[in-house]
Amino acid sequence: MSSADFHASLSPSNSATHEKAKWSLSKDAFEKLLNSFSTDREEAGAQYELIRRKLVRFFEWRALESADEHADETINRVARRIDEGQSIENLKGYFYGVARMVFMEALRDRERAPLSIDDAPQSLREKVLDEAEEPEARVLCLDKCLEALSPSNRGLILNYYQEERRAKIDLRQELADRLQIPLNALRIRAHRIRMSLEKCITNCLQSDAGAK
Amino acid sequence: MHYKLLAIGRGREIERCLEHLDWGPQLSRQSDQKELAAQYLLGTLSEEETAQMEERYFSDNAEFEEVEIAEEELIDRYVRGELSDADNARFESTLALSPRLTERVRFARVWKDRLTASPSPPVNDSVIQPRELEKIRISWWSKLFGISGEQRSPRLAFALSLLLLLLGGVALLTGWLRLREESRRLTSQQAALEQRQRELDKQAADLRAQSEEIANKVPPQPSPIETPSVAKPDEEPKSGTSILALSLSPGGTRSLGGGSTIRMQPATTDVVFTLEVQDPDYSTYRAIILTPNNTSVFASTQLRLKRSPSGPTVTLRVPAKNLQAGDYSIRLDGRTASGTTETVGDYQFRVLR
């Protein structure tokens, strides 16, 4: 796909609202999208999940509300091009390009309709409520999820995030030395454990809320 | 721009390759990247830098993970109040629009409290993941006894404990086997003794039966000296007492059993002497029992003569207490009608106690 084609496909005439009205993601189109990631079904699924995560983060880090919706819109547009038979060499780069266009459109939409205090997004209201949130359930879930970790992972994460400033650096270096891995590898490992811990807590809180 | 991105991408790969070779100098570059990622998240990068960052993490998964980690560290700094006022405000503006980030901040707060409340576990092998342990292939013997490695002392202590436990177990087993053997030996001995006891009982029963059989065949013989209590119509024998009887001839003696010796028993209360009288012409008789030095120990008068098929006799009853062990003689005197006394006979006997 040439650069001209790329920009043509993302021209203002193809606005998100307009495309949503004319085209929706069919099962067949989704299959084609997956195949464009990989012929291996599992690998394709994993890559799809990852690109979606990147898209959501992109819109969040660009301080745009409803990041999930924008991410899905981006995926739909790429899927449509693939469904129409367009050949895309650099799929990840193409996703990024489409995401930038969706972002620009969203920015324009936001400028046209500025937020009033009453239209504050749901997340902002949650943040206000956050101060009054009872953290007991979260603490209980944290304990449960820490227990669910393997002893080695639990030990690692508790040690990794312990201490302050200089002592923290020394402790992390000691941990890395003991594990015989570079400090950055330790950082990544701690991050992954933390992500799994946070996911566990989210599930735990949801199941608690469901039980109530 | 594309060439620049390519260069950045390749540089990243080279950095990763170098990571495992020499990662000391990597720290400063890493720190720069972290700072760059933090600035991207705070929205302080130029549009061009922002786009470069985004292109990198869209095409490079590791780069994306780096930005995610930077996000995590930014959240921690925010929760700990380590951000400047300006950065704090920028971060909060992003935070306000993202439920996911809000959730992460909530976690970070609880996590910070948790880490503050509870001390960290000691840094030890427990932080090594199973995969890491698999890589370090150490024989079970080395693991056990810690010939190499930093955890020698605890392993050695464990190994010694195990060794002591094993030795103790062996000693206990040996002791138990020995006791079992001893127990078996004692049991067999007891069985043999019981068998012997049964045999002896049987023998004793046989002997008793034989004895009874013999006793039944042989009539009972009176004792040569002692006779059972002599019951007289006018003298009721006291319970548990006995009376001895002895017949004596003048000059010599002739006991009931053919002897002149009396064996006194503790139960003997009286001795009855039957004195054969050769001259029966006296109206009454007097008997005096004398010791060898002629001391009288007993005397009885007004004795009457009795006539029996075996001849005339005078009976003399003497309390046993008057007769101590020794030789005695009985002098029998006859009293005539005119009142004169004449010795009619002497009788000898001996007392044994």
What does this entry look like structurally?
The complex is a heterodimer of chains A (212) and B (353). Chain A is mostly helical and 212 residues long. Chain A contains eleven helices and no strands. The longest helix of chain A is centred in the C-terminal third of the chain and has 29 residues, at 183-211. The N and C termini of chain B lie far apart (149 Å). In chain B, 50% of the residues lie in helices and 20% in strands. Chain B has a five-stranded mixed β-sheet with strand order 2-9-8-4-5, with no helix packed on it. A four-stranded mixed β-sheet of chain B has the order 1-3-7-6, with no helix packed on it. Chain B is built from nine helices and nine strands. Classes of the chains: A mainly alpha (212), B alpha+beta (353). At the A-B interface, helix 4, helix 6, helix 7, helix 8 and helix 9 of A face helix 2, helix 3, helix 4, helix 5 and helix 6 of B.
Brief account:
The complex is a heterodimer of chains A (212) and B (353). In chain A, 76% of the residues lie in helices and 0% in strands.
Helix-strand blueprint:
The complex is a heterodimer of chains A (212) and B (353).
Chain A: H1 3-9, H2 16-22, H3 27-37, H4 41-61, H5 67-83, H6 91-112, H7 122-130, H8 136-148, H9 151-160, H10 165-179, H11 183-211
Helix pairs in contact in A: 3-4, 3-5, 4-5, 4-6, 5-6, 8-11, 9-11
Chain B: H1 2-19, H2 26-42, H3 47-59, H4 61-79, H5 85-95, H6 99-117, H7 130-135, H8 140-145, H9 152-217, E1 242-248, E2 261-263, E3 268-276, E4 284-290, E5 296-303, E6 305-308, E7 311-319, E8 326-335, E9 341-352
Parallel strand pairs in B: 1-3, 2-9
Antiparallel strand pairs in B: 3-7, 4-5, 4-8, 6-7, 8-9
Helix pairs in contact in B: 2-4, 3-4, 4-6
